[in-house]
Design a protein that fits this description.
Blueprint (H helix, E strand, L loop, with lengths): L1 H25 L9 E6 L5 E3 L2 H21 L3 H16 L4 H14 L15 H10 L5 H10 L4 E3 L6 E2 L2 E2 L8 H5 L3 H13 L3 E8 L2 E9 L2 E7 L2
Parallel strand pairs: 1-6
Antiparallel strand pairs: 2-3, 4-5, 6-7, 7-8
Length: 230
Amino acid sequence: MKESLKRKRENLNQQAHDLRDNVARENGIENPEDFTPVAVPANIRCIRHLPEKRQRSFSDGLKQLIGQVVAERSSSASLTDYSKTQTDCDTQTPEMELRSILGNACAVCRGVCCINGGEHAYIKADTLLCYMQQHPGLQQQQVLDEYLSFLPKKVYKNSCVYHAELGCALPFNMRSESCSSFVCEGLAEIKEQAVNTKTTRFFIAAMEGKKVLRSAFIEANQIRGHRIYF
């Protein structure tokens, strides 16, 4: 099974490699061989208005979760867990340039990993514990209001309530650890290359199956030659 998945990844990356030089010529990008080709998934869902029913469902669930967190903080055991959660939250913050590279790759994908966020947005107790320790003066209702204030008017259909056209509408420090640390196979390859070879240049091909839907050249915090295929 591992060998089969490895071959599949190699084939997808080879498609990205074969496409890279042609796209570079069309966009006047020199030295395309300096851009490491990487295949990522492609979100194909449409943008729609966020229904009020989904907003209420998210609000009700989050309100209940905040109440549980506030109640648990009154016990000494929960405070110990709280401190540990905050330490973990701090140490998991990625280096800024790498975060920018990964974020730009996600922009080409448009967030396949966000789809299962639904009306919970992957937010858990430890997510709120991190945020509440960062903002100790906020009351329970204020925490809820802060999260609700970032709900976008339009989101991808049947995806996370924060999954907007330009990416996650929720600030980085308010997202769950799952959202902050998750990497798909494509992002894992980018991260490995960036860390081991110090490269900041990648050619990203967002694919559904074997079909390329979008592509772009990424150089540190810049995206160039973005192209959509129909």
